[in-house]
Amino acid sequence: MNFEGFTPHEFDRWSSLVEQDDPTALPQGVAGVARNVSFRLSSVRTRDGIAWQFQTPTKDQPITGLASLINQQPSGSTQVPVILDMLGRMYVESPAGSATLVQVTSPQVSLPPNIHMQVAAAYNRGYLAFSDMKVGLANPAVYDLPSGNLDPYSMRPVGARWQANTAYQAGEVVTPATGGTVGNGHTYRCTVAGISGSSSPSFPTNEGGTVTDGGVTWTETTPVMAQSLADATVGIITKAPTVTRAAGAGTFAANRDVYIGVTLVNGNGETVLSTIFSYTAGTSANDRFVVTSPVLPTWVQQLTGSAAVTGYNVYEADVAHSGAAPAISAFTKVNGALISIGANQNVDTTGAGAAPPNTNTAVIVPAGNICSGQRYAIVLFKNRNGYITGMTEASVQGFSSPGNGFQIYMAHVPLGPANTAARIVCFTVSGGTTVGDYFYIPSQDSVSGVIMTSTVMSDNTTTSATFNFTDVYLLSTTKVTDFFRKVQAPACVDIYFSASLNRMVLTTPTGHMVSLAADPESFYGDTSPVQPGQLDGQSTICWRDFQGTSYSLKERSGYIVEVSATDPSTWQTVKKWEGVGPCGPRAAAVCNAFMCFAHRSGFYVFFGDAPQRVSKEIGNLSTSTWRRINWDYQHLIWIHIDEESQEVRIGVPVDGSTVPNVVLKVSYEESPSFGPPLFFSHFVGKEISSAESRKWSVDDIPAFVCARVERKLASLASGARTSMSGADSLTRQSQIMFGSSNPDGVVSAIDYGTYSDVGPNGTAGIDSVYEAVAPAELMRVNQLGGISVNAVGNGDLQVSIILGRQIATDRSNKIDLAPIKLDDSQAKPPKSVGGRGQNERMRPRFSNGKQPGAWFDLKYAVLYARPVANSK
Fold first, then answer.
1. How far is residue 600's CA from residue 559's CA, in Å, rounded to a whole number?
2. What does the pLDDT look like over 709-738, one tens digit per residue?
3. What would the DSSP string read from start to end of 104-123?
4. Does the reported pTM lie above 0.90?
């Protein structure tokens, strides 16, 4: 095309979106509009499309959680993409890359609607926090990759005090909220899960007694210890038998005072005589006394072998009315054969059998090495991830061994919640107190021929066990007294694994909870909290590590956490900066080179000194993109750093949206220091643009979450919806994926080299627009001649000339030129198109017309115009 007589105005630099002034007041090289584009050093092109990868079965909820987990095994690693929808339904793609979703459920993890999920990967597990991104809405959970189990994160301490209006799981054990530190001496296991009532129930103290508490049923389940049938825990020999007088039914002489006791018998021997029943009112002639059979506790009835009770004996002695009580040696057995438990025994006259034993031989355990004296024990639960619960003093049970030389038996060991893999019985040494110290033996050992049995019950089914150890050995084993300090992990907004500390960090608006080292589910109520700037009136947002330093990020400040070998609560925190901070847990991100966050005042990058605002060009004017963000929903803003493409993406809600509906994208490939796109040149005396700068653009991608997912694409049948036709060998290994903020259950990925957004219902064009600013020479009235473009692409390149200061929104301030047909050839000369009209402040606008598959890559353009007058 012949542009003779027209002056060429070159556009050879394609840089960032700049909104800090109108497009007629900015130096050439930047953009007034940069929507759905990507930048290279010397060109700008249509962004790559997104292609859906999978969709939830219900297709009706946004995706509010997305994570890339790796199951690392000796035989090879397995990729496990995991998602959550807004109704609290969790899925994994299995196998990765197949688009097949498998729902993950657990009877112990019940999630409410309207929740978001934060994920921390560690120890071959995903640690999950659930919230509305402002406050925690459900207790955290753990997804174990090797087993596929979804379990609660940490557990309620055994014997925790009862609480009103609280959800309890079957297997959790509580103690009444009364009775001081020692409670009522009993523990109660939840046997029907539900929500407790608003006031404390009357907890029963009988063995196995139950009580309904709102939607919960509690069953008395108190561990008992014994070595023989004569021990106080059996409760039979320590109290007098039940005896009734039947007048005229027997052969007793008149005026006698009658004394009766019983013994229990098992395969090992007979107990000493029980506490004595006495009738001291004087008999009448021919009285009878009926001895009611002892009632054995359930756990005693369950004894087996030589320990099992085989019956009981009745012993009687009588003296003249008002005479002195008889000595034990004066008692004689009434019955001949052993009396069966459940059968009563009549005593009609003075006994004539053998005297009762003076030593107890009815043991229920083998010979062993348990020392005599008072000791205490407590039962803990161990879940299948290796976490051991805390404990309370109210759940401690005591036992006094009458002598050396036997093992010790424990019954009524409670069964824990469904994810319990083992129960651990912890003991004090003889002479210990209820506060400890407590120890347990992890595995069986032999010392000088003495077998020291493990005190770990490696199941969640048996309710009794027999143990043997010496106190000297016990003192050398695992000490757990500090577990009195353990608390259940609270509901939280953010969960983060600090690899440098080997600790898990939970964050709530009031501060952080830092786990024990290498024990991600264990927290001490007194020493785990870290609360920087506790009284500064700011919410705590999240914890992040950057270049070996731990940072606590608050909504308007940042603190360095000076970690030491002491408890976390003693760690010093030093304010690093003041005034800005992330607006939500997802609005902060870290990579090798920098940490960044979004605040209502702008986007900040932190290299270690002070946060630098790098969004001035999109946030200064009232109409700028940053100011169009709906800050009422700032807690939903997310940031993702893609180090492979060197781009930062920020999902934000704009123009009144209540969910993130666009992605602000800043490329730092040409400027790792995030240099500005404009700078003042002292050489030319004015501001000029820079190609080596950060470059902003806006992508129309509605997403609640974004992540780079390590997910090798499977080979799919030709034409399959999830096929990414443009995927190169790099993209086939991992993808940038978006969880849709629309109610469609879709997860999509960037499909490099394709230029349509492919959804489950079809293909949509990408509305790719780049609008340059007006050169100074075109600020006065000019006659348009046309434009020449050096570009490659596909489809029609829509070219318009924008007139005036306003961004083009309709046809009133632009001249549309004939479309330029693009192809992907670099060898052909630039293509040109003529135009007519005259006006001032001319600048070109390039678009793909939002046509599916249409794209452009602009390298150079020349706008031809000639002035109508020498001056305006």
1. 19
2. 999 886 544 444 455 655 677 888 899 999
3. E--TT----SS-EEEEEEET
4. yes
